[in-house]
Amino acid sequence: MNPKQVRAFVAVAEAMSFADAAQRLHLSQPALSLAIKNLEQDLGGRLLTRTTRTLALTPEGEVLLSLARRLLTQWDNAEEEMKQRFKLQQGRIKIAAMPSFAASLLPRAIRHYHHSYPQVRVAVEDVLSDTVVDLVSQNQVELGVSFEPYQASELAFYPLFEDRFIAILPPAHPLAVLEQVSWRELMQFDFITLQRPSSVRAMIEQTLSQADIQLEVAFDAHQLATVGRMVSEGVGVAVVPALCRQQVTEQGALCRPVVAPEIRRRVGVVCKPRSSLSVAASAMLDVLIETLSTQPQDSVLPD
What we know:
This protein is an alpha/beta fold and 303 residues long. The chain is 44% helix and 22% strand. Residues 296-303 have low confidence and may be disordered.
């Protein structure tokens, strides 16, 4: 039984005339008769009784008519929904993003997306960079925004910009008089960073190890927002992605470029190959690239 046969049966049952039903369906009467015959053969019994003057439903035909109307309604609804999804007139996408990105740049891209596709709902999960990659790999979200993964061969990575890490200092800190701060200068004060596992902490540890600088951690936290608040309260100093600049500045911390050595890492969209994305997710990928690929994250000036 297929939708074409079901539509033919419903048309005949409602019109009680093969001629009228054929005209309604834009079919020839022989083609309509064949569709009904094939349907009866598929189901294993007669659905209509025919004489030279009358046409009537069998008891089984009456049952099928009720079922067929519901099936066709569901089919038409499903067809319409899919057409709307392909036209981006309906749908829902989920994006995972690092909290620093979700709180700073992502809202701008979502605003542009919503302006173009107001009927598509967007859900955001702000999680650590490593978790972003895991959620994409596990098909829990279609798009993720994170630092470029070290190992994710099955995923595509669309770079948006390069982020340069910055030092954040409490107000009136002794290092605030400097235009830029070195790691050896920072290590003279209580240092705050993220807890393991964290890609930010891993980048800091790897960079300092290569520069033969001992990393001494006085305090650690789970979220960069907490690190920023601790710095602004004078607990210590920290190094964070430049993505956090606006957030930590609003908390009261001061920002300076950190050098000797610098830490730079590309930020971009992590996803399955574009051919595997929904139409809605593919459109969001385009919006993210168009909106943020020229974001100047590298210019961090003294306060």
